[in-house]
Amino acid sequence: MNTEANRCLLCKNARCMNACPVHTNVPVAMKLYREGNVEEAAKILFENNPFSAITCQVCDWALFCYGHCVLNAKKVPIRWYEIEQELSMPYLLGQAHAELPAEETGKSVAIVGAGPAGIAAAIWLRQKGIAVDLYDSFPRAGGVLRYGIPDFRLDKKYVDAYERIMDELGVRFHGGVKIGKDVTVAGLKESHDAVLMAAGAWVAKEMHIPGEDNLHVLHALEFLKEPEKYDLGKKVLVVGGGNVAMDACRTAVRRGCDTTVVYRKTFENMPANKLEVKESQEEGVKYEVFTVPVEVKTDGSRTYAIVRNCENYTREDGSLATRILEGTDHEMDFDSMIVAVSEGVDKALMDGAYPDGMEGVFTAGDYNYGPKTVVEAVQSAKEQVAAISSFLGLA
Ligand SMILES: Cc1cc2nc3c(=O)[nH]c(=O)nc-3n(C[C@H](O)[C@H](O)[C@H](O)COP(=O)(O)OP(=O)(O)OC[C@H]3O[C@@H](n4cnc5c(N)ncnc54)[C@H](O)[C@@H]3O)c2cc1C
Ligand code: SF4
User: Fold this and answer.
1) Cβ(77) – ligand 1 distance below 6 Å
2) Could you identify which of 134, 151, 220, 335 might form a hypothetical disulfide with 340, taking C-beta atoms 3.0 to 4.6 angstroms apart as the criterion?
3) Domains in the chain and their CATH numbers?
4) Would you say the pTM of this structure is higher than 0.90?
5) What is the pLDDT of residues 37-61, one digit of tens each?
6) Is the CB of 249 within 6 Å of ligand 2?
7) How many CB atoms lie within 10 A of CB 219?
8) Atom of ligand 1 nearest to the CA of 119
């Protein structure tokens, strides 16, 4: 038994639960865990959040449950996520079998995107007796969990488990089908009662600097899909300060590269999980903060970036901004530059998707609101499944 459980106050109006985007019922699961009823505890976690076994590994707890524990004020907060790991990870690999619907409704939904939002929606919709066709341009299901987050942070056996669960539920998975190219959203709408767009945020944003199309420059999402495909050379610059930059730099340093993160603001401003920044430093990643590339050049066998220094300043309205300091040009050599400045959604996918207006087309996860987190994608899927059920007259 994890001794953390006995320190928990089992609060009535639990702050951890309120701060968790998918409202994990920590007090109820914690009580069951204390009583030794681990299977029941894991079952209620899975039913509320089929990705509990993954979110407990990849959530930024400091922002959510752990950061809001009432014991933050006086003592040390409860590490609930460790207990969730102990409960949900073996449960997903062993006992987790989604319950089959009592009866079929005759309705069908097409889902575009087999990331956590699409998979969670597929599970819940099937459990309501709705037929599901799930499309993804990748051959296998998982989205960022399979094709973004590196193995050293998430063992892919946890992602594989969802393929088994979807098979058991009769979700029809169509891998290697790019919607918008092979089939259109309007076409899916014609063949189904509703469509759920859960296509994530896979459009790599550019730095918009001269030389960005240099062969030594690649985008982090491309790199993380198949890191072993790339020969990075010795010296690697990673541009950006978010979680994608962290996965890129930590993958590069594991490949033996001399890796430096270049970030235009400073450590406190980084959107990346603070724990990951710390771990990357322990692994040997170096940082050049308040630095931004303004041009990439190749000169014979030498490839380098011209970079400038930056500084933060406060705008008149009190908000924080960053400016580039003219006259501070200097050079940084590299063999590979991995760009992780931001990602956006592919709006063009929806072009012509609404011959009859918005009716029957729903959006979930990162595709709905831009890049966020796994747990928020699951919560978004939950809300959209409720909206679809109501649209189909089943709620
Ligand atoms: C490298 C990286 C690391 C991250 N680390 C964390 C973390 O540690 N913790 C955390 O909580 N969050 C993390 N995130 C964010 C998190 O992974 C996402 O918020 C989450 O995966 C969003 O889920 P989703 O289902 O909306 O989209 P996705 O997981 O992006 O899945 C969308 C799917 O749609 C498919 N698709 C896209 N376009 C089409 C099309 N035209 N036709 C067919 N299929 C299509 C894609 O192939 C993909 O499989 C990370 C993101 C990245 C990129
Ligand atoms: S899903 Fe994430 S935020 Fe919610 S309780 Fe679990 S670890 Fe905390």
Assistant:
1) no
2) 220
3) 4-93 (1.10.1060.10), 108-200+345-391 (3.50.50.60), 204-342 (3.50.50.60)
4) yes
5) 999 999 999 999 999 999 999 999 9
6) no
7) 20
8) 25
